[in-house]
Structures are given as C-alpha cells and as structure tokens.
Batch of 2 targets.
Target 1
Amino acid sequence: MVSLAMSPVTAPGSASTAWLESVLKAFEPSLPAPGASLGGLPRRRSAARDELRRTGLPPTRQEAWRFTSLAPLIAVPPQVLPVPELLGPKPDHPPASGALRLYWDGDRDPLAGMDLPEGLSRLETGLQDSLLGTVLEVAGTTGSWLVRFNTALAGQVLALRVRGNVAVPLELVSDCGQGSGVRPLRLLLVMEEDASLDLLEVHRAAGTSLTSVLVEAQLAPRARLRYGVLAQGTESSCLLAHLAVSQAPASELDLTTAAGGWGLVRLEPAIIQVQGSAATRLRGLQVSRDRQIADLHSLVRFEGPNGQLDQLQKAVVDDAGRSVFHGAVQVPQAAQRTSASQLSRNLLLSDRARVDAIPQLEIVADDVRCTHGATVTRLQQEELFYLRSRGLGADQAARLLLDGFCDEILASLPKSASRWEPANALLRQALPR
Amino acid sequence: MTSTASVGDLVSQPYRYGFVTDIETEKIAKGLNEDVVRLISAKKHEPLFLLNFRLRAYAQWLQMEEPDWASLGHGPIDYQEMIYYAAPKQQAKKASLDEVDPKLLETFDKLGIPLSEQKRLSNVAVDAVFDSVSIATTYREKLAEHGVIFCSISEAVKDHPDLIERYMGTVVPINDNFFAALNSAVFSDGSFVFIPKGVSCPMELSTYFRINSGDTGQFERTLIVAEEAASVSYLEGCTAPMFDTNQLHAAVVELVALDDANIKYSTVQNWYAGDAKGVGGIYNFVTKRGHCRGARSHISWTQVETGSAITWKYPSCVLQGEDSSGEFYSVALTNNLQQADTGTKMIHVGPGTRSTIISKGISAGRSSNSYRGLVQIGAKAVGARNYSQCDSMLIGDTAAANTFPYLRSQQPDASIEHEASTCRISEDQLFYLQSRGIGLEESVSMMVSGFCRDVFNQLPMEFAAEADKLLALKLEGSVG
Amino acid sequence: MIRPDAPVLLEIRNLHATVGDQPILKGVDLTLRAGEIHAVMGRNGSGKSTLSKLLAGHPAYTVTAGTVRYRGDDLLALAPEERARAGVFLGFQYPVEIPGVSNLEFLRVATNARRLAQGGEELDTFAFEDLVCERLKVVQMDPAFLERSVNEGFSGGEKKRNEILQMALLDPLVAILDETDSGLDIDALRIVSAGVNQLATPDNCILLITHYQRLLDEITPDFVHVMAAGRILRTAGKELALELERRGYDWVDEGLASSDHAEADATALEVA
Ligand SMILES: Nc1ncnc2c1ncn2[C@@H]1O[C@H](COP(=O)(O)OP(=O)(O)OP(=O)(O)O)[C@@H](O)[C@H]1O
Ligand SMILES: [Mg+2]
C-alpha cells in the first residue's frame, strides 16, 4: 500500500488529554455576558464538550491530521486568554479610511456602541438560533475537530446579516497581543439575495496563545462576498480556523487567506455550492520558517451543475518549516458542466524544510472540465539568472522572485489589507539563501 | 447528449477468454495453515531457506490485517475457502513441448499465445503459467547462449538457488503488506529472469498467466535481475475464465537493476472482470516494485489494465542509485462495476534521480477508477526531478474518476511537477471525425486510443497494436 | 565602423567550455573593439548561444580553458549581475517568462543597478517612468507591456522587443544579441533593427547572432564570423554572409576536416 511515514511529533496521549480537559474546565459555560448573542449555542456547546472528551485531540494517525503536529497546541496554557482593558485602534495600523473596524476578542460584543453602515445589521436571535450550524451541516463538517473544539468553547457568536450592497469594507480584528491562553471566535454571516460585502479578518498573536475560529457564511442567490483572512503570528502562537461557506446559485465567493509566522496554523476552508452554478475563487499563501507548521485543508463540493472553481494555493517553506496542502474537490453526478481548476505551488527553500501536497479529486459527472496541478521546487534558476544578467544581485533577485510569488496572492486580499502591510508581515524573515 | 448515451453503450463487450479448459487437475485441500505452506514447499522440492522464507512470511501474515484504506468495496475474502495449489496433472515439466498435454497447448493457442515450435511468436520468448505451474518456456536454449536465464521460478529455485536466495524478498520484504506476506507464504509459480553483466537480452521476454480453476487463488512471483549494464524488456499477460465467484490473484513482482541496467516491464492485464452486475471476476491485489540499486539504472513500468473486478496495484520504483530513473506509464479502463485503484510510488533516495509518471484512466458504466500515487523526494536526493501527468476520461455520468496524488519533498534542489485533468470525449471532436466520414464507434475508439497514445507508445511494438485492439474491443458494441 | 586604434572592449582567447562533461566550445577567439558590429553565424548547435550565455555568466557552462577580458579585466571572474552592471548585455534567444514579477519594477531595479555602477544616480519611480516611456519609442513598444509580468504571455516577437528595450535602458558597452531577429514580423524586424542601429555608438560594440541575411541588410556588420563545432572557423567582411546565404554550410565540413583538430571536431559535429 501507499505507506507514508507518520508525522514524527505526536503529542503524548496523557499530556494532551490533560491539556484538553483543562481547556474545557477553563471554558466551563457560565451565564452569558449581558448583551452577548447566544443563538443555539448552549445546547450545541455541551454536546460538543462531551464529544471532545470522548475523542480527545485529533489523532495524527487520522488521514486528515497525519501531517499536523499538535505539539505547539498543547504548549499553550489551558486558560482563557485575558482580554486587555482597552480596545481601540493601534497607532501602527489605523483602519483604512471609510472602513469599519470591529475588534473581536470572543468576550466583549464587537458591535456594542458601533454605528453599522447601511445594509449591515445584527442577525436577530431567533434566526441565529435556527441558522447556526446549518452551513456546517450542509458542508458535512460538523464532526471536524476544529468545529467541535470551537463549538465546545465559544460562549458567543458574532452574527451578521447583509442586505444589499454594503459600501463600507468591514474589518474584523483579533489581536491576542502578548497574551497567553485560548481565544475562541465564532462568526455567522448571512448574506441575502444580491447582497455584497468586502470582509477582511485579521488575526495577530505574539504570545503563547491559541486562536480558534469558526466561521459559517451563507450566500443567497447572487450574493457576493470578498473575504480575506490575514493571519500573522509568532513561533509560540497557534491559529485553527474552519471557514464554512454555502453558496447558492449565481453567488460569488472570493476567499483569500494569507498566513505566516505561526507555530501552528491550520485553515480549513469548506465551500459547498449547494446547487452549483456559483463561482468560487480561492487564493492562499502560507509561509513557514524556523520550526513552524502551516496546514491548509480545503474542501470544495459542487452539488449542482455549472459551478466554477478557481483555486491557487501557494506555500513558502524555509528553515525547518513544514507546509501541508490537502485539497479535496468533489464533483458528484449532479454537477455536470462543472469547471474546476486547482493549483498548488510550493517553494522549498531549505534542505531541512518539508512540503506535503495532496490534491484529491473525486469526480463522477462526465461533462466537466477539471484540472489540477502541483509543483514543489526552489526558486527557478533560469529566472534568477535572467534577473542577475540584468544586474540584480543574487539576494535581490531572489527577493524579487519571492515577492512576485507572494504578491500574486496578496494582491487579491481586500484593499483594506494593505494597511497591515501583508507582504512585510508575512515575509519579513523569509529570505532565501 | 445523444452521443454520450451511445458512447456508454459502446463500452460493453463480452469477455473473449472466459472458457474453462477441461483438464485433470491436481489440487490440495482448501484452506490455509502452516502445513499447507509446508506442503507447497515440499511439492516443489524446495531448499530449506525457501521453506523458512515461507514460514516467516506466514507467521507475519497471521499478525497482519487486511487493508481497507483504499475504500474498495468488496465482500470479505475467506482465506480458508481457497485452494492454494492447483496444477494440471502431468509429470514434471516436459523437456520438449511435444510432450505437453495438447489440451494445454490448445488453451494457449486459443488465448492467442501459440507455444508450439511452428506457430510461436518469432521474437518473443514465452513462459506460460497455468494455474499454479509453469507449463512451458520457449526459446530457452537461444537465450542461454547469451547467458540469459528465463525460466519458471520453481525451476530457478532448483537450478539457481544462490540467485534466488540473494535477491528474492529484497525488494518487497515479506512483511511489506498483507497480500505480499500472503504471497510470500504460498506463492506457487511465476517467472525468473536473470540478465548477466553487459548483456542486452536478444528478444522480448513474456509470461502469460492463465487462471483456470474456479476456487484457486493465484499467487505468482516474478523476479527479474539485471546486472551491470544489462537490459531486458519483459511483458506479462493475464486472462481467466468466467466464474460467478471471485478469485484472488495476489502476485509479487520484484525487479533489481544494478549499475547502468535497464528493465522495461509491461503488463497487459485482462483478467475476467465479472459480469455487468458485478458478479464474479478477479480480485487483483498485486505488489510490484523495482529497485534501481545501481547508478544510472533505469526501470520502466508500462501497464494496460482492462480486466479484474478489483485492481489494487502500484508498480513502484525505489530510486537509490545516483542518477537512476523510473517511469510509470499506465492505462486503466474500468466498466460496469469494476474498481481500479492503481498508481505508483516513486521514492527518490539518491541524488540526480528522475521519474516520470503518465497515467490515463478511462471510466465507464458505474465503475470507479482511481489514480493513487506517491512521489517522495528524500533529503539526500539533490537535483531530483519528477514529472507526473494524470488524465481521466469519463464515459457516461455514473462512473467515478478519482485522483489522489501525494507529493512530498524534503530537498530544495529538486522539483516535482504534477498535472492532472479530467475530460470526456468532446462532442466537437467526435463531430469533426464523424463529419469526415468516420463512424461513431471508430471515432470513439480513435479518441480513446489517442488519449492513451503516450502510454501505448511505451509498449513493445508487438503488443502496442494488441493493447489498442483490446481497448477497441472493450469499447466495441451497439452504437445507437 | 572599423578603427584599428579603437579600444578593445572584449577579447576572447582560446575559450573552451563544457556542459556537464560534454565539450561545446573548443577554442573560440574573438576580439571586439569599440564601434564595431560583429555577426556570428553558424549551423544549429554549433555553440553560438553557448558562447553568448557563457559570456553572460550562465551557471550551466564550465570554462575549461582560455580567457575572456572585458576592457582588460577578467570577465569570467564576475558574477552575472556584475557583468550586467559593468556593461555586458545579452539579449536572449529564448527569454524566460517570470510570472508574478512586474516588468516595470524589474526594469527599474535593473536600470538603477546599472546607473549606480556607472557612477550615476538612482532614478525614482517617476523619473524612471519618464525614461522608460522615452526608451519604449526605440522599439515602438506599447506601454501596456510594462504593467504585465516579465515576458509572461508575450508573443515571440514581443519578448524580443522587450529584450531590446532592456538594452536601451541598460546602455551596454558590449551587447550580444542572440537571434533577436527570430520571431519578428517584417515590420518589427525593421523597428528593432533601427533601434539597434540607434543604440550602436562609437563607444560600444555589438555582437549579432543570426541565421539570416535579412537582419544584416538592416544592420550592417563590420565582420562576419562563421562558427562551427565550437570554434570560429572563418572571419571576413559582410560579403561572407552573402556567400553563406548562397552556399550554405557544406563547405564547413571540409574546413573542419582540414583543420588540426579534425578528428575531435568531426565527432563533435556528429554529436551536435
Ligand atoms: N544546458 C545544456 N545541456 C546539454 N547540452 C547543451 C546545453 N546547452 C547547449 N547544449 C548543446 O551544445 C550544443 C550547442 O548549443 P547552442 O545552443 O550553443 O547552439 P547554437 O549554435 O546557439 O544553435 P541554434 O542556431 O540552434 O540556436 C548543442 O548541441 C546543444 O544541444
Ligand atoms: Mg542558439
């Protein structure tokens, strides 16, 4: 059989169980803070806690986790990440003019005291109750460990409804700062017919922290979501994010993720075109160096005809970094005339680094055009030489190529991302040698 | 959509090789235990090292679990209901073909593999295996003049025990996987090829496997060794009668290439696939692996897989020698309820190693056709290169085509490139051909063979045409 | 323009080079003086591109013997970018495509590196855009090409124009143009040739590699060299090109056979 070496680092059983138990204890459900949205949370939460206790941390034996080491996770103190007293714009990254920024800490209500722009509103509690979890069910990812973990911890949901065109770009910022501990964040986004929104999610962390994110977005017919996730962490911080989106016909999703610097980052975009006929564009960049692990597990499923997918995932791996791409594309019988392309491009810059790329195409419909590709290389020597023959130094040439490699992705983040200088943030230390 | 439906109809074609040869057969009692292993060894008068090899494998097998990772749907296999040794009743292998039971010769005639002096293929030496034993090998003397050994593995055990002991089990260890362990314990016959230093084998070598008994598992074992600067091209073909039960075929093939050696291994697999309802057919669970041990050695696998109810097969290359290279060219056609899970592993160990993978899957009916592959570039494989291309063609909207490539690299100065596409026969192209006066059926088969061209080109000349015909046959039928 | 007293810019002596273990250049001698235009012709595979890439410092080629002096200094000791900055330019036969890297940005960085080396000032983005727009005229290229990635999706002819644009920006002293005419349509050939003529000055020199007289009709060479099996077999004035056009290269075999290295080269020809 295709036997693959197991991931070398597996958290020792007892330590991980103890860690998980302490986290659950720290997040023992209590009375909700006044004003916080609850939705159908409590019921789901206790079910998820039981499930987690039963299953423990995801076993690295499992196919979906075999490449992901959990060591950085259980090094995070099993406590609630303390929330700083004051919220407010950091002097170094003021919001882009005309953008609405919400600070997100999983504790306080990000909408409290905010003037919401036209078209954007808080989703009514009743609706929240009935809608929460439905996208996950459609996607079939309710059992994903990331989903369960977040569901077990999150005490509130940021629930938004979008009607018509929201002219103001929305920024959701979670900055864990130097804090240690776990921060669960959950977002429910309901986009009505013809609604459109630019959303940028920013995750930052500099301490020994774990940010757990669970997003459910539901796009009604002709809705358009441009969604960027910019995540910059440090060696000791972890980010686990499950992003589930259901797309009705004629909706458009443009999702760009860019992550770097995290000890462990795992992103799980799960996109379902419920009746096909929608457009999905996925872009991703992940940068890992030192001993960082970056893992992207994507799922795109077409449940009806005429769907489109354009997916490009890139990774830059240096030092003893590891990068994993696992990309499933499912085209069942109902999905005739699907057109899907997936490409994974990996730059391997050091001989201690490691790349695993696992495209996974499952196709039953016959009238489809599906292509996928993957490359693992270092910087192209011919390209380097061409640049050097024009007078660029070796480092400069490499840098230019690397920037070019990354820019292709970063350029499709929502505009407000430029404030965060994504290229700098992600590539600062990733200099090829 | 009109032609899609008719294209679907094209794919069904009765199996031509489904007859049973009525011949007296010696079988041992069904079931598997240590005594059976000993009995097989004793029947073959094997030396002690081989008996021990079998017993170790059997002990390992008992500890192992049948894999289910490929999510192949098949009922449980009862290993105690199977017969592990069956041979046509005749005395020890005949020195001359004239003494071979004419029924057997006739069988192979009918299969298109004439063995007799007058009719045999002119440039191909054939080893014919019937159930558990090799019944004839042609051109042995001519090959011997060049120092080439081509015989059944049982004969090799008798005549060249040192070579067998030196090489057998070194590429596929006895505990490699469940089916390899089983094979190592009970393997019956198969072919042995040895090409000495500097010799390039003067003719194509070929083994033809025929399962005849309905309740017998076939566990053949093939070993090919090419010494320094030796080269050989080898082809295997397989058929079986139609039974409504499933027969297990769990073969092991090991290739060893020393410095500058070149081995080309081609397979045209057309085991009985079961009927349109998925009843009967061969379970083809095979372990094939080549070891490029020497510098600049080269191993090339070419396979055309059209038969079997279930195929589970990953001809692989371990590229250890510096600048060694591996190739995998595959066409897999599935129809009705056939399941094929096939692909390759290219393990790049040494510096400068190269590999190429070209896989073409064609799925029709309600079949499932998966490419599963691994390209691994180890930390020492400086300058290694891989290129893979996996294309699938779907005929009708109930067949599945899956692609599961694993790419793993630990070496920055190496490159992996993988491309894959899925398509169907385009209406435009069909129309173009038809508008030039070519019938639908022929158009489809032209397109399919065009789709497979890259792979067919790798087959030895004599067989490329055969393979093309075989696919055309499978696609032949009623065009509405 | 031939001036015997003009300074020697490039002097190649007995240059031997290999790719891997395979010898390709087998004793090239060539001297280029300021103000001169040289043409190198020769059969496919005779080593023309090898010579040009080697002069630009391509890592695939190993020099096994001989010297190359650029204005008296050892050129081979320099890294590729140092050569470019010092004024050696190669217009590639097959320019690579570099997806993701903006053409404009690339041109700016390269130009500034050369300007600094010449003791000039770096240009800021605006000043550079002015310069580029002016130089675009040399090759009559659409500014839209500046917005695209380097050579990506450029047609064959567009790539060649982009090469000459770079030459116009980098202001080289030795410009080697490897089959710059191939892939150009009739008008483009005139435009590019006019550009090259405009860039040729008494202070620099140009080495044209080409297969066709039609380029030499536009750019008149002072010398024509015939390369065969890794050496310059014959050198003469522009009339040699016309003779080649008439006679082809068959006479080359005789030339090779009568030379000292007859045996080695004959096998090399077979290989080529
Ligand atoms: N990187 C390389 N690897 C292997 N062989 C090479 C390499 N570069 C050049 N060669 C060989 O060296 C010989 C000379 O090639 P070169 O490109 O210099 O020829 P050329 O004169 O430019 O030909 P053309 O007129 O076709 O452009 C050819 O036989 C070529 O195959
Ligand atoms: Mg050339």
Note: The pocket of adenosine-5'-triphosphate (ligand 1) is lined by residues C 19, 24, 42, 44-50, 60, 93, 272 (CB under 6 Å).
Target 2
Amino acid sequence: MSSATPVGHGLAAPNAAVGMSQPPRSASAPGPPLWLLLELTYRCPLHCVFCYNPTDFANTGQELGTGDWIRVLRQARALGAVQLGLSGGEPLAREDLEPIVAQAHTLGFYINLITSGIGMTEARIRALKAAGLDHIQLSFQDSTRELNDFLSSTRTFELKSQVAGLIRQHGYPMVLNVVLHRLNIDHVGEILEMAEAMGAQYVELANTQYYGWAWLNREHLLPSRAQLERAEAATRRFRERVGNRMQIYFVVPDYFETRPKACMSGLGSVFLAVAPDGTALPCHAARMLPGLQLPNVRDSDIRAIWYDSPAFNRFRGEAWMKEPCRSCPERARDFGGCRCQAYLLTGDADNADPVCDLSPYHHRVTEAVARAEQTAAAATGGVREQALVFRDHRISIAVVPGDPVRRR
Amino acid sequence: MSDIPGSAKPAIAHGMRLQWEPAQEAHVLLYPEGMVRLNSSAGAILSRCDGVRTLADIVTDLERTYSIAGLTGDVTAFVALALDKHWLELRQ
Ligand code: SF4
Ligand code: SF4
C-alpha cells in the first residue's frame, strides 16, 4: 500500500503517487516539466492485438526522426526536465535509441528505459550502458497472455529471465513492473517469487487503471475486494520474508478508495509526454479529453508548449474546478483527482474524480465495484483476450522534511 | 541505525545519482523513476558522502563550513535516515 500513501513525509517511492510536498502551484508560475516521457515509437515486435497504444496508431503521423527527439531533449532539459522515460511501443525497435540515450546523458538526464525486453541483446545493453542509460524497467505491460506465459514458465519467462540476467550483469538497478487485474491478481505470491528469482530490486504491482480498453472491460478486470485483500496479505507475507532486499510497491486500484489519487500533482505541473508523432501530452491518456488542442513538437518548442499552450494551461491552478472541489479544503492535496476518470465517469473533465466520496457521481464507482463483484463469481472464459492495460507513468517528488543541519 | 560509527564511510547508494539542478536551485537525488529534491542541509550532507570521507570528516567539514559546533548528532541522524531509505550505503 505504500505507494497509495501521500508522500508528505518525504519518503519517495519510485512509483508513488506524486508527492504532496510540491510548492503550491499557480497558473501564472508553473514549475518546470521535471518528468519527460518520450514514446519513441508505436512499433513493437510483440504485435499484441490488444496493445495499449491508440487503436488508430497506424493512422497517426510519421514518427519523429532522431534530430527531432534530440531537439526535444535539449529544449526540455533547458527548462529543467531531469527524469527521462523512454518508452513506446517497444523503444528497442528504434535503431537510434543509443544515440538518443547518449545525447540525453550528456545533457544530464536520469534515463529510464521502459521495455518489454524484446530486442534486448548483450551488444545493445552494453552500448546503452556506454551511452549512459541509468535504469531499465522490465514491464509486463501488454496482455494477460504475456503474464500467463510468464507464470507458466514458457518462452516469455525464459526471455524475461535472460534480459533480467543481462540487466543485473551490467549493473543496472532493476525494476519489474507488473500490471494487475482480476485475472492475475491471485498470482501475486508467485509473481513476487519469480521477481525474486530474477534478482529484481524493485517490484511495482500496479493495478490496472480504467481507461481505453480496460475501461470497456472494467467489470471483468476489476478484482473483488476479497481478491485485493488476499493479494495484499500475500505481499505482506513476502515483505516479511525478504525484508528490504526487495522493495515492493503495491498500487491499489483507486475504485476501492474514497479519495482520488493526486494525478501527477495536477496536469501541467511536472509531467510532459511526447507521442511518436510529436504530439505533446500533459498526461499519457489526455488524448481522450475533449476540446484539448494538443500541440506538436514539430510546430512549437517545448517552452511554448509547456508555458503557453492552452492544452497545458487548461488544468493548472484551481479556476477550472467545479463543486465540490472548488471549495474543498483537500483540493491542494489531490487537485480533484484524475481528469480522465472524471471525464469517463461523469462526462465532464472539470468534475471531481468520482472515486472521491464527496462527488455526487461516487455511486458510479461503487456500482461498478458491486457489478464487478457479481461478475467475479461468473466464469471469465473469453474475457482475457480483451484485456488491455495502460502503463501508468508516475514520478514521485518529495522534499526532505525538516532541516537536518541547524543554522544560526 | 543511529549509532553509526564516526569511522563509517557513507556513499551515494548504487543506482542513485546526486546532482545539482539549477532550475530547482537544489541538489536532487535521482533514482529509478523518482526524484527527491533535497533541502540545502540535506544537499550539503549528501554531497559530501563520497565513500572516501568518514562520517567524522564530514561532520568536521560541515561544522567548519557553516561555523556551527555540535553537528554530530544531527548529521548522524540524517545519515541513518538516508541509509534507511537506501539513498546512502556504507563503504569499507
Ligand atoms: S471534493 Fe474534490 S478536492 Fe475534495 S477530496 Fe474530493 S476530489 Fe479532492
Ligand atoms: S490518467 Fe488521470 S491520473 Fe493519470 S495522469 Fe492522466 S489525468 Fe492524471
């Protein structure tokens, strides 16, 4: 549960809900885009039918070239961006990944590669290390099938183990990320044991976020409360056994909460994503929000996109909020929750995230949970093929509380 | 954890990176998918943890730099906290 806890105490879990100790935001003076995510490509050798990429990705514009990505890196770094995520698709599908990493390293980014491991070889991992890559996150992101393969020790597991071995051998910190839902959450104990066998230092067990296909399949993917409790108990037992040799972040599906997550400290506060075609996004799911004119890095520089574009200013400050958030004393802590969830469940992106029990739409969440409890009892035969999950990119930012050195 | 000997040599833990960020006017600790922005005191301590200097050296240096006496307790407590959070590790 650690990552569901607000980070007010300065303990920053690698994937925790964003820290609350950010200085207060104001629309007039946003801070820098500290966390830059480049989705380098939609291409992926896995060809998962139910991949999380937009279903119309074949129609999205051409991928940016090496020079474009490097320009984006320079511009963002000049504004103060420092955490860099390289994802996709499968970022290893880009042959220019190494020069992009090298440039980012020279600029001073901390570079995270988010990969399925497919396409990783000894030669490439060596070249990436030499280029300055800091960390590799091995993700089980694509489908239930992939995870089932993993659990039943078939080809995928062999491949992941090999890549895990390479990651360890080359001295990278290793994070294993597994997206949980009803169909796999009962295997949390086995997943953790496999992670231990692979030598992972961090494991993220992130429950599915309900957007896109996962939203459509919500009733079949939401775990039951009993499943959730069992999974938490299994995690606790595992933690007791391994101690702090391995850090485990268990992210509860927010449908079971009564307060929403703090969403990146609010849209336009710390996070900037760039899609393969150059579209700049204040949140990786923001394409769904109606009326947002998303800028493109081919047409504007990052400074103009971050500070001046209507899309990035749309949810800054508090002026956009409606009741009950507008007058709520907690609004500086959770910023009204997730805009995408507000839009999906209430039809209005300016409403409170209905996970909040102060929202007049909260019953839509509790009803979904209740329906899920009912269908959980039924067989889920053909459902798994529809499962599609979004990876959730979060960053934790915290300030060390107190002043360890007294000053006069 | 808080009785770390003065002879211990704290270093930034493997996989962590400490750097000065002009945009934030602060030292930050970077690690997989996360960042801790350090206040000036924490930055002053961690930037001296190079795995070569002992805790006692670091305290002496800080006391001299900031013209304050008696920092051993506070610095040791912070180093203990940083060890606990895996920001630091001890070298031989
Ligand atoms: S009403 Fe809005 S601001 Fe208040 S707790 Fe709920 S979501 Fe957060
Ligand atoms: S999906 Fe929701 S919570 Fe996540 S970044 Fe977007 S708006 Fe925030």
Note: Residues A 261, 263-264, 267, 283, 285, 338-341 surround iron/sulfur cluster (ligand 2) (CB under 6 Å).
